[in-house]
Amino acid sequence: MSNKKQTSSDIAKQAAAILRDPNASAIAKSLAGSALSQTSTSKQTGSQMEDRASKVLQSEKYSESTKSLAGSVLSQSNKTR
Hints:
By secondary structure, the protein is mostly helical.
């Protein structure tokens, strides 16, 4: 079953800001890229990115903005996985 959810404009703006930030972590930039790639498309999150986003949400070391991106990326994953 496919997932028709897309990245919201607020999350897309946040993701774009993270990609422009030279001090943003690699994981934050990875999640931001994934979130932006799912803006106005029917693309779904891949299994590797799902795992990465899940680990971010379970960890206390990531910022709220990184966790927000992780949540968005996970919400766009394949529903059958």
